[in-house]
Amino acid sequence: MSDPVVTRFAPSPTGFLHIGGARTALFNWLYARGRGGKFLLRIEDTDRARSTPEATAAILQGLSWLGLDHDGEVISQFEGAARHADVAHQLLAEGKAYKCFATQDEIAAFREAARAEGKSTLFRSPWRDADPATHPDAPYVIRIKAPQDGTTVIRDQVQGDVTIRNDQLDDMVLLRADGTPVYMLAVVVDDHDMGVTHVIRGDDHLNNAARQMMIYDAMGWTVPVWAHIPLIHGPDGKKLSKRHGALGAQEYQAMGYPAAGMRNYLARLGWSHGDDEFFTDAQALDWFDLDGIGKSPARFDLKKLENLSGQHIAVSEDAALRREIEGYLAAAQLEPLTATQGEHLETAMYCLKDRARTFPELLEKAHFVLTNRPVEPDEKAAKALGSVSHGILTELTPQLQTASWTRDDLEATLNSFAEAQGTKFGKLAGPLRAALAGRAVTPSVFDMMLVLGRQETLDRLNEASG
Prior knowledge:
This protein is mostly helical. The protein has helices at 19-33, 53-66, 81-93, 104-116, 183-193, 206-219, 249-254, 259-268, 281-287, 302-315, 318-331, 339-348, 359-365, 367-370, 379-383, 387-402, 407-420, 425-437, 445-465, and strands at 6-9, 38-43, 75-76, 97-100, 141-144, 151-156, 160-165, 173-175, 198-202, 225-229, 232-233, 298-299. The protein folds into three domains: 80-229, HUPs (Rossmann fold), CATH 3.40.50.620; 243-338 and 347-358, Glutamyl-trna Synthetase, Domain 2 (Glutamyl-tRNA Synthetase, domain 2); 379-465, Arc Repressor Mutant, subunit A (Orthogonal Bundle), CATH 1.10.10. Helices cover 47% and strands 11% of the residues. The strands form five sheets. It has a three-stranded parallel sheet, covered by helices on one side. It is an enzyme of class 6 (ligase).
């Protein structure tokens, strides 16, 4: 039996959870969860100047909203610094790394001279094979001994085999002169110690893989399966940036997109399963594989996100939708629902969720059940409440008092009333919408009546016709 799959998401806590990061986390989560494996979370907080607890909290909140749960504790890369340094010293002791005393000025002068002579500016340290007896009493970095001939092949599950000539690799610094480990070393040691089997990350890290493999090979560790996924572009084909709209995952929560719609859309952003556009979490977990990831950058398309979100709202359970709408209101810093409003919303959900693409759209349709009397009509609705409609509503009210409160009976009562008035039901709908909801666009009049109940319906009609 093969080893269990272990993936990880390793963001830097320097800001919110970027959409690109959210998709990377989702791909790792789907791959691990779909195979009964583990999905781990590591915060790469070695840049102390830019890493903040607030950013870490924002990343955790973004993952929580998306429903991407991780196994075990959140790992801090900074806290592993001593372990990272130990590995560098082990390689030094084994002769696979060396102390380099070259100063920044000497390295700059070397590059300047190489440029002038038209040679490679890749720094070749004179200390690589120096006799330790010649080492000065001066600050030094620890560099790994890179292979100097042959090739390194990155066997990538998305990009295919990528071959890099070893004479293009420099003796990478592992430990700085102040004894702190570099990011490249920390990543490899952490991934090894965490048992990561598959590294799924953005293709901007592809070249890093060749340099990181030097450490795996020098330590005799198993190289993980690589999968470098293309970046996300805006609709104009340029790298996704602020000019394309919101960049943080949680901004989409505050805009009123359901998490299931966001998961579905992000999964489709760069990965496909035949022609399937809409799918459930269960299907995504069952279908997701690395060979479905394309090599080209995906384009972020808000219209597609809205379309999928609407489909997910339509099939969601009413109680779950209510909870998620309450989360949206909090994220958007809007007035929360009262307990009574929440219950009314849930009762009405069956006639609200079919055509709403976002929660603001759904709540606009729900205005009739969230408002209290007196119902204040907006400008469009007020136009439907002229003197003629006042008279019609006054005549209609007694007939509704004796109607059986079922959809069929209400339809029959209203249709026969319209006929008696020499008109069609469509002409009655405008004034009824205005009276019941104060809006011109609402769920069907019959649904509103059923949700509001007989007494509330009659009270609203009486007020509007008064």
